Structure formats: structure tokens, C-alpha cells
Description:
By secondary structure, the chain is α/β, with parallel strands linked by helices. The protein is built from ten helices and twelve strands. The strands form three sheets. The chain has a five-stranded parallel beta sheet, sandwiched between helices. Strands 9-10-8-11-12 form a five-stranded mixed beta sheet, with helices on both faces. It has a two-stranded antiparallel ribbon with strand order 4-5. A hairpin with a 2-residue loop joins strand 4 (57-58) and strand 5 (61-62). The N and C termini lie far apart (55 Å).
Amino acid sequence: MSNEEQPVVLVVEDNPTGIASLVGILGAACELVVAKTLAEAERCLSPDMDLVLLDLYLPDGNGIEFLKRLKSDPLYQELPVICMSASDQSSDIEEAFREGAIDYVLKPFNKIILSAKVSTFVDFKRKTNLLAAQALRDTLTGIGNRRMFEQQLDLEWRRALRQELSLGLALVDMDHFKSINDQHGHAQGDVCLQLLATSMEKAFGRAGDLVARLGGDEFVAMLPGATLNSTVRAAKRLEEVLANEHEKCRRSGQDCPGFSVSVGCYAVVPHKGTNASELKEAADQYLYEAKREGGRSCVRPAI
Length: 303
């Protein structure tokens, strides 16, 4: 397989002979997580898995129902599922493919065919994941891009709504970025953008926080569970982190123009009838206020 890391395969199979056969065929190349019931499979399921081998007939239900639940969950829609059965009835095969199975293999297993199928689908999934991850990253700074931010904002907004949690947002804009490009050149402007991205990752560094570049010199930090006070405190830390990063550049002999940022913050506990755009608009108003007051690491609201 193309990736050196051992693939993780969820095997949903209750028959001891079938399990032993799969271990013999795939055990050396894959990490097999065996579930003998659908309930056990639900507990074992993880987004880190590369493939599911799913028997159609389990003690606690039909594998097709499990397949339907997988394909209706955005977290697992792209997880490849190979259905396994001794049945070669057209109705079983057609239903498996109709509900989203990527393949259907008959028992007893053919070692060469099964190994080739698993290898092919694992490689395909990993390449797809890599392309998807690259599509969500800003190529210059390595942090998330606007697309990643919008996707995560939607997820975190719905989670905060369900759990009645606060969601904080900080919009960050570099002061006088055009002047930096005009005076020092675009290459130095890029260095400044990279330094700001690194600083934001450190200032907004809690587990679950997300930083992204929206475009140009516009950045954002999303802080799940954060109140307005804690969002503003994190934004104020950014000035200190930036100063430290600039000092590191100078000590290492790198040429990085000094700059400051303006930050607008807001936080809200979502409720029915509201949407994430209101959070963005409120933070944007405070960013405008910070810029209007001259920038220079200005954070608004003033708390």
C-alpha cells in the first residue's frame, strides 16, 4: 500500500471462521478492529479508520442498516465499505451497492482478490483525504483557509446550539499591509503573513481552536466554548506573541518588517432563529472600530 502507516480496517463479522480467514489474509498488512455485532461496530467506529468490511447478517441486525447509518453521517460518508456475504442473490448485491457499498465480496474469500480490493480502496481513500486536506489549507501559511473556516464554523455553530455553549470569534487584520508590500516587496509581505499565522496558532492555542487565513491580510480565530472575555484575552495575547516572534526573527538574522494588527472580537450562545453570520457580522463591526481607532494592536471591544 502506498502509505507506510498501517491501514486500520473495521471488520464487522460474527462468524469465527470468517474472522480467522480475514486475519490470515489481511492481518499482516492491516490493523484489524473486529466487531461481532452492529452495536459493537458502532462503539468501535472512528474517523481514523480506512475501510469497513461489513457482513450482511449479524446477530443484532442487518448490515445494510448499519451501512445506511454510515452513509447518512457526514463524518463517515467517504469511508469505503465492502460488504461480505455468502449470498450471491442479485437483490442483496443490488441493495448493498444502492446504499453506498464500494464493493461486494463473496464468502469463502479469495485471498488474492480480497487483498487487492482492500489495498486499492485504502490507497484511494488516503489519496482522497490528502487532496481534501490540501484543499482546506492556505498554501502560503499552512493554516486553514476560508473554506475550512466556513465548514468548521457551521459544525461548531450547530454543536454550540445543541449543547448551549458559547462560541467566540476573533477577526484579525494586519495594519498597513499595502505599505509593507510597497516599501519592502511582496516577498517580505509573505514573510509577515507567515509570521502572523504562526503567532495566531500560539495565541489561540487551546484544543479545538481554529485559525485560518480568509484571504490577503485577513485572518480569523474561532474559539469553541469561549466567552467574549476569554476571546478578548486571547486576542490581547496575540500582541505579546507577535513581539516575541519578531524578536526571534531579528536574533536569527532574518529580515522581517515590523507590523501590528487590529482585532475585532465577539462571542455568543447560539439559539434557534439565529445563524453564524450574525457572529461574523458582530466581530466585523468591532474590527472596523479597531481599525477606525488607528489599529496598532487595537482589540475591540475594550474589556
